[in-house]
Amino acid sequence: MDAEQRGGWPSMSAAGATSSFLDYVGSTNPGLLPFGRTLPAGQLPPTPHGTTIAALTFDGGVLMAGDRRATMGTMIANRNIEKVFPADRFSVLGIAGTAGLAIDIVRLFQVELEHYEKIEGALLSLDGKANRLGAMIRANLPMALQGLSVVPLFAGVESGTSVGRLFSYDVTGGRYEELEHHSVGSGSVFARGAMKKLWRPGLDREDAVAVAVEALIDAADDDSATGGPDLVRQVWPVVYVVTGDGAQRVSSEELAAVVHAIVERRTTERREA
Amino acid sequence: MSGQFYVSPEQMMKDRADFARKGIARGRSVVVVSYRDGIALVAENPSPTMHKIGEIYDRIAFAAVGKYNEFESLRQAGVRYADVRGYSYARADVSARGLASVYAQSLGTVFTAEQKPFEVELAVAEVGASQAEDHIFRLTFDGSIADESGYLAMGGKADLVQGQLRDTWHVGAELPQTIAWAVAALQAPRQESAGNAIAGAVPEPLAPGNLEVAVLERNGHEVRGTHRSFRRLPAFEVENVLNAQREA
Questions:
Q1: What does the pLDDT look like over B41-96, one tens digit per residue?
Q2: N or C: which end of chain B has fewer CB within 10 A?
């Protein structure tokens, strides 16, 4: 995989033989990568930041949800941004942090998985995918030290099974498997608090969607950088569900119904806090 | 030091071409056929893992005959080319024409400059919005490139297979019919050799286990919700299709 190992195979290094798109581009065209450049000294102007991602396991898979807001300092930079993406057929990732870098890292990760699958003719294992994402986040460490950090959350099922697994990361690329549920981003504290009370073992898919949406509503309630569901513009969180059949985006009709149910319940209960 | 004999450039090219042609004719054939809902790629290939057909990009597939190590390295190079291009521009900017011309240059350079030419023949197929917009390119060992319309056969006794397809293929057929045509065409060389041995003898039909079948689906995005239109057909699906066609 790495350059030294390839060095042992003269004909292979000539052919650039690696199954990793990241390694290949890194050696042939490093300018294409979102990271790996040294930034000159200076004050960085405000850049858009993505905020809260929540993920949880349920009976039959795993689910990830993200709010739709990007902030730039105290301003709202974007109210339609999507921060949860399918990584491949059986995994999804969500990103919090510097949006510009994060979106390119997502694209890079998607190509990395597809590239491996095409070259090798086989899917990477879920742990393999999680490790590749960790390598990318570690490569971004110099940028993180300049204040441009990207923190992903990764979830998926091993193909052929329906057991959902969750992985969180720190800026050094450290990879931690999370149980039950996890959240990243500025509103994560509130989302986690909500999920601690709402999550229970053996949730079905519909209930899991409701729990994730409610956790994001709670995060938006207390964190100004997290956007709540927008009933006027009909903007709902992005929610992906991964089961043994693959990753699927939850339809906006279903999300609208879930959001309305939560809002109506809270209105009747006249909740204040 | 041994003396160098003079060999005319014509003779040298001819020797190289004969060498490559012989290598390619030794193997079994592959066909690429356009049908109503996509493009089918069918190869006679007893190995379930050493593929002759591969996915390159969203709407592009690759098929090859000849020496496995040579076309496999070309396939991987094609995947790298397409992925780098799609990553640095956009997914829609990766086209079969661009890939085919890179292949043509690479094959042409190897043919003239290297010790020996590649003993391979390649096909690059791109599924379009309609059957008229499908592209099937044929790339030969010397870097020649041809834009084939509708179908293509290569490797083994390619002329026989191509001839059979010419007689049967027409626009607008569905997948099962197309696979049946392709398999019949792949059988043509056996038919002929059996016919030569004993008049009227029927050769063993090609078993689904000896076939490698993949499709580029025209509406993969609507049907399967993925941007990748390439799909391998498992042996049982091929068997079902062939049985249904035989009964019909």
A1: 999 998 888 999 999 999 999 999 999 999 999 999 999 999 999 999 999 999 99
A2: N
CATH of the domain at A138: 3.60.20.10
Q: Average pLDDT of A25-51?
A: 85
Q: Which residue has the higher pLDDT, A257 or A44?
A: A257
Is the separation of the CB atoms in B63 and B30 below 8 Å?
A: yes
Q: Within 13 A of B124's CA, how many CA atoms are on the CB side?
A: 27
Question: What is this model's ipTM?
Answer: 0.90
- Write the DSSP symbol of residue A8: T
pTM across the whole model: 0.91
The Cα B248–Cα B176 span in angstroms is 11
C-alpha triplet B175, B147, B183: angle, nearest 5°: 30
Instruction: State the average pLDDT for chain B.
Output: 90
Q: Work out the pLDDT band at B226, boundaries 50, 70, 90.
A: confident
Provide the pLDDT for residue A186: 92
Give the total number of structural domains in chain A: 1
| Segments making up each domain of chain B, as ranges | 9-247
The pLDDT value recorded for residue B1 is 54
Determine whether the interchain pair B87/A89 forms a contact, defined as Cβ–Cβ distance below 8 Å: no
Residue with tokens 């950090």: A149
Domain that holds residue A109: 48-269
| Neighbour count for residue A202 (Cβ, 10 Å) | 8
* Residues of A acting as catalytic residues: 51
Chain A residues within 8 Å of chain B (Cβ atoms): 15-17, 21, 24-25, 28-29, 32, 89, 107-108, 111, 114-115, 118-119, 121, 248
Quote the DSSP letter at residue A263. Answer: H
**Does a structural domain hold residue A42?**
no
Burial label, A264 (beta-carbon count in 10 A; 0-12, 13-18, 19+): exposed
Q: Quick: pLDDT tens for A116-173.
A: 999 998 999 999 999 999 999 999 998 888 888 899 999 999 988 889 999 999 999 9
Q: Which of B51, B80, B228 sits opposite A121 (nearest CB)?
A: B51
**In chain A, which residue's Cα lies nearest the Cα of B89?**
A32
Superfamily holding B9-247: Aminohydrolase, N-terminal nucleophile (Ntn) domain (3.60.20.10)
Chain A residues close to B223, C-beta within 8 Å = none
Query: Is residue A7, in this structure, part of any structural domain at all?
Result: no
Q: Which residue on chain B is closest to A118 by alpha carbon?
A: B55
The verdict on residue A102 lying in a domain is yes
8 Å CB contact of A119 and B76:
yes
